[in-house]
Write a structure and sequence with these properties.
This protein has 121 residues and is an alpha+beta fold. The protein has 2 helices and 8 strands; from the N terminus they run E-E-E-E-H-E-E-E-E-H. The protein starts with 5 loop residues before the first strand and ends in a 13-residue tail after the last helix.
Length: 121
């Protein structure tokens, strides 16, 4: 069994709901080698339970180089920010932090890597 690699990065972001001003939020960006294709953005709101948003790592990678869309999820770069759009909600994060997390995630679990708790055959 391989070692589980978890990458965490706390960043400042903004949460936007339609028709409302942007709300500054703290976001914990996470990747685990146990779940290679997933990137998580845990949004911390004052006096509320954190909201755990899960994005496909390849979709976020595509969105860094050009707009990407998969169903109701869209990813695009706006200046030095990444906008993650999910069903009317927009989460914007610093581009450099998202790129750093992506690079760390691909080092920990390359594309097509099996989860680290997989049993070797």
């Amino acid at each position: 069994m391989s070692e589980v690699v978890v990458t965490n990065r706390g960043v400042g972001g903004a949460l936007c709901l339609p028709g409302r001003p942007a709300l500054p939020v703290t976001v914990l960006l996470r990747h685990s080698s146990q779940e290679p294709p997933a990137l998580r953005a845990v949004v911390v709101l004052d006096d509320e339970e954190p909201v755990d948003l899960v994005f496909d790592r390849s979709l976020v990678s595509e969105g860094i180089t050009g707009r990407a869309r998969d169903g109701v999820v869209q990813v695009r770069v706006e200046n030095d920010r990444v906008a993650l759009l999910v069903a009317g909600l927009t989460l914007t994060l610093p581009l450099a932090d998202v790129v750093d997390l992506l690079l760390a995630s691909y080092l920990a679990a390359p594309t097509d890597a099996a989860p680290t708790d997989a049993v070797p055959t």
